[in-house]
Amino acid sequence: MKPLFPWTRAAVAAAAVMLSGCVIVPPLLVGGAVVGGGMVATDRRTAGIQLEDQGIEFRAAARVRELATLGQISVNSYNRVVLLTGEVPSPVERARVEEAVSKVENVRGVVNELVVAGNSSLSSRSADTVLATKVKATLVDAKDLSANAFKVVAERRVVFLLGRVTPREAERGAELASRVSGVERVVKVFETITEAQLAAETAPMRSGTQAPAPVSSASAPGR
Fold this sequence. Notes:
- There is one protein chain.
- This protein is α/β, with parallel strands linked by helices.
- It has helices at about 5-20, 45-65, 90-100, 120-140, 165-180, 195-205, and strands at about 25, 70-80, 80-90, 110-115, 150-155, 160-165, 185-190.
- Strand 1 (about 25), helix 2 and strand 2 form a beta-alpha-beta unit.
- Helix 1 (about 5-20) runs antiparallel to helix 4.
- The relative contact order is 0.15.
């Protein structure tokens, strides 16, 4: 049996962040997050886009706070597409949050997965943090995937997978995530690329040169 302590430490650290009492919950796992410590992961986004995504998350969270919503909302940005998860008290609030985030600078799309429900408990959100970390660890263990291409978010036992991946990687990643104990549903929020695109982007990395900037798709992320 594999030791459980690597993802347990990560879960405790993430739970400690949530205890700060903020209404806007930071991303559970950012693309390139460390599972178990000691590994600096790479990402298929350029460094510039990763910084843009971080800026989008901060600005979007601030915009949501200005709405004074009573919900608990998580904001995650990947390649400038924002995923909204969590709870809001009404359909009106759900629409207001999406509209506000869509107007944030550099956002090119919003995937609104907010549910109209009461706020989840701290124990429920802590369990989601552990669940997301277990899914990420499962992707790391897979020999036929690049785990660093995936960003994992868990909300109310639903796992959202983001990333720039090929169709094969998308299906394989979703399959592995669905097998993790506690996962009730997997939602794919991917930007799909072809095997040829992936080969072209990774070839410079193997040769030690800088990879070209990824081309952003104008279409909405697939599921």
